[in-house]
Design a protein that fits this description.
74 residues; mainly alpha
Length: 74
């Protein structure tokens, strides 16, 4: 049950509309192109884009967390 709640939280994590996917190092050009084209509004939506790997989703989540921490320091 705990795992289900965690997955729901991850899936629901929002991605700001002005998020710069091109600033994430480690994303392949193909994945970057797909993310820029679709502009997903959540991590769950991004994870359902064909060709976007779990590793790419992990990189996006790390970048989102880093951005959140930087914003909270200001």
């Amino acid at each position: 049950m705990e795992m289900v709640e965690r997955m729901k939280r991850i899936e629901g994590r929002t991605i700001p509309s002005d998020f710069k996917f091109d600033r994430i190092s480690g994303l392949s050009r193909e994945v970057l192109r797909k993310l820029e084209e679709v502009r997903p509004s959540s991590v769950g939506e991004a994870s359902r884009i064909p060709g976007v790997t779990p590793a790419a989703i992990a990189l996006v989540m790390i970048a989102l967390e880093k951005k959140r921490r930087e914003k909270s320091r200001q």
